[in-house]
Amino acid sequence: MKLILSPWLKKCCPAFFQHAGSGTRPDPASPDQADGLDPRRAIHGPRHPDSEERPDARRRFLRDALALTGAVTLGGCDKLSETDWAPKVLGSATALSHAAQRALSRNAMAREYSEADISPVFRPNGSTDPQSSEYRALAANGFHDYRLNVGGLVAHPLSLSLEQLRALPNRTQITRHDCVEGWSVIGKWTGVQLSRVLEMAQPTKAARYAVFRCYDAMDDGSEYYESLGFDDAYHPQTLLAWKLNGKTLPIPNGAPLRLRVPRQLGYKMAKYLRRIDLVASFKDIGDGNGGYWEDQGYQWYAGI
Fold first, then answer.
1. Does domain 115-295 match CATH 3.90.420.10?
2. 262-298 tens-digit pLDDT
């Protein structure tokens, strides 16, 4: 079937095949089935919760996959998205790509740049000034009363001030931020590795995901949230950052603390962090897809 379909699919949707190797479409049942290693220990790794694709998700999947390349070819791919078989075929192909990417690049590092490469302006995106009363009170006090709470499936719940976070061993890295909208910027980030905080909290054996809850509310009134599997949560370049380009993180860029995951697209890098919950599944959080934008149809795994 592959030999028959591929030439026609490539002609109809070349941008999809150009992007398919980046692995942005996990198998909803088990994105980590390739080797099943938990980055914390040699046991089975995190598994994506079972979920049924919503009726309108098939068209969004094809469009979103193409949108990640910045080229949506509506004519041919609209027709593809209306078929029963195309989303299944393409979903299987990208699930395989994700599994292969994990197997080959579990410990791979995102490229790091020099000071000369830093962009003159690090463009903010999405929410740039949360208006909740709790956040406004924290900002008015210079975030001196801020606490990052870490809970859920952990042996030791945490409540960490900025001072306590800054006192931990930190890391500075110059990495590129790639937005799903098609633009990129390079910035220098300083923060604590998420893995250090997780080691302090000691996730239980049942924990499979880190869920990041934020202070910014979306237009529909819902809370912005995101999640990571443990491969990226424990990766050495995944930071809880409080500095950008050597200065205190500005509010438009996520003050006082934001997530940096340079191996994934920008929408995975939650700003205005309020708390981190360790969970076995996120099927009961939001619409069950692992993040605010994922609940709108974006892909949970946004690896680049």
1. yes
2. 999 999 999 999 999 999 999 999 999 999 999 999 9
